[in-house]
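S1.2 Input.
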Amino acid sequence: MQHFFNDASHVVVDVLYAAGHLAPLRIAEPQSGVRILIRRDWDRDTHGQRQVAVLSGGGAGHEPAHAGFIGEGMLTGVISGSLFASPSMNAVLAAIREVCGPAGCLLVVKNYTGDRLNFGLAAEHARREGLKVAMVIVADDISLPDTPQPRGLAGTLLIHKIAGYHAQQQDTLDDIQALAQHACERMASMGMALTPATLPGQTRPDRSPELGLGIHNEPGVQHIAPDSARDAMNHVVAPLADALDERGHTDGWLALLNNLGGCSTQEMGVLSGSLIDNLGPIQLPQLIGPAPLMTSLDMHGFSVTLMAADDAMRKALQAPTDAPAWPGVRDVRPPDTFTPRLATQGEALQDDAPQATHLTAALTQVLSVLRDARDDLDGLDARSGDGDAGSSLVEGADAIELALTAGRLDTAHPERLFAGLGQCLATGMGGSSGVLLSILFTATATALEQRGLIDSLWRGVERMQTYGGARLGDRTLLDALIPALQALQKDASLTDAAQAARQGAEHTATLSRARAGRAAYVPDSALEGVVDPGAEAVARVFETLARCL
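S1.3 Output.
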């Protein structure tokens, strides 16, 4: 299965079935053979008495267009055909009859032959029945400059919104038609895709990236090879800007950025930034999207619509609507900035920091031991993790030695010593181990303001367990650290504590299941007889301290 469809021949039915359950709509009975969706609250004899109905539609496969734009302040209803195929004249006429009251009905039609003919014929029949019907044909595609019939693309949605707003204001049918037509003349659209759409049940066509393609899988006007999102956006925006310039619309632009169906959220975010950078917030003060608005099934591409919007158009586009798929209009402006209060070297480290000679010497020995243990620890970690435990500890050791050599690490005052160690590890040691050890030393430093050293170390362990989630017996450095602290808590010597740490580290070789860290994702058989590298490092640290202090 390549797509989440039930039956390739029933995709449209299934999509509209869901829409009918999730939005306040009335839907033509399935046995009627037509696909019409109408606002649930709309009544042609009451609403239609004073308010123009606005209908649109066309082939399916462009969801959320058009059903997603039914709502107060936008469309009254839509008529859907099959995938990429116009609805029948009978379906359009039935929709007109359902919504058209004395105020009349406006048809918003994309400029495709099938849509023009079927909507046009339905309008003629409706007029013979005495209904007031007008039509606006949207032809916003500028990728085929020599064609007498430019295609209707995502700019159609802007016409839906403008016409729907003025219908809500109870403007006349003639006025709404004129306003919609005026808006059509002030916009231009173009699409670009890396791959075409895949019709349900078929194989995706093998085509290279194209510029100026339609929404029905028509080939583009030009094959291109953009090397970035910025380059792709430049290919689209430049001809749109030229088209509006040629019409005399040089400023006041508003853009609609449409996902043609297959772009990820992240891609659309990058494309949005590229669009803003291309035009700038002065030339592009407002943006609609990015969002999937008029898609082409799963086409991996986007389209941009530029509109030279006057104040009346902006008011209409910004007016509220309960149409579920309308994303609204957002202002484009450079973000306000602030200076973050980041931890600085001056917080725990200081120039000419006081030194306790014996502690400085002992710490220097510990750092040397960790460097010498690099290969051993990496080897142990390769059995249970990604093989960088020793390398990560050396990074931390280097950061500490840099501060120590520069005379910036205070070894004379325990609180500042532990705070400095935490700061060095936070910035100089990569991976989760660096963060966990930084938590241990930082929390210990905080506790030292009110507690003794051993109680403060226990506080550090507690915080490390809270954030890291590991416990004694989970095959982590805690399996050596906790036994050592338990020994010290009983007034044992550093030598006794080192022995307890060593026993705890050796015990991890008997634990075949890890419950924290990368080793938790390794099969039990790979851990048998292997000492945890973090516990081994702790044991070596305590053994070094026992020799030096």
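S1.4 Remarks. The chain has a mean pLDDT of 93.
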